[in-house]
Amino acid sequence: MRSVLSLYSVALLLALTLSSCSQTGKKKRMQERWEASRTESVQVQRAGGSNILKMREERGTYYVPITINGIPMEFIFDTGASIISISAAEAIFLMRQGKLLESDILGTSYFSDATGTISEGTRINLREVQIGNKKLTNVEASVVHNMEAPLLLGQSALNRFGKVTIDYRNNQLTLE
To answer: What is the mean predicted confidence (pLDDT) over 131-151?
Structure first.
């Protein structure tokens, strides 16, 4: 019963957030995000058991391709984020595609952003997170109750690797 209540709470909050924003601008930005995740600049290579991901750099921010429950997305590589974080827009998209289920909603969480502001979010379980040639299962993530929040690849996924190497000259991320 509690998870049904959580699902309805998240759905209601997301619906309210959606209704209060400009739909055309949001849809265009969402489409751009999905298209960016499919470009050549985010190819994955395999080299001796390592994952070598091509990062895309934009104004000092590095983006990496990952797949969440079968849906390709592009995330900001953020070693300072304690958990994978997605926006309300991506959560709604995943729910509509049947990729985020009622059973994946774990409850409410509170997090601190880079400015120190404490915000409420929803903790979820991502059943499958594919980063290069490695599939991680049951990775905790948070849904930020904001339609424009960036997608952050945080420690809840990164700490499952033994070694993380960043090559800024070649814009490559190696995960072993």
So the answer is: 94
Number of structural domains (the chain) is 1
CATH number of the domain encompassing residue 61: 2.40.70.10
Quote the domain boundaries for residue 160.
2-175
Residue carrying the six token digits 């072993």: 176
| Between residues 113 and 82, the one the model is more confident about | 82
Question: What's the Cα-to-Cα distance from 36 to each of 42, 55, 161, rounded to whole Å?
Answer: 8, 12, 25
The pLDDT of residue 41: 35
Contacts 24+ apart (CB under 8 A), 94-99: 94/68, 94/69, 95/11, 97/71, 99/68, 99/69, 99/70, 99/71
Q: How far apart are CA 2 and CA 117, in angstroms?
A: 28
Positive or negative, the CA dihedral 129, 42, 31, 57 is positive
Q: How do residues 36-80 score in pLDDT, each as one tens digit?
A: 544 433 344 444 566 899 999 999 999 999 999 999 999 999 989
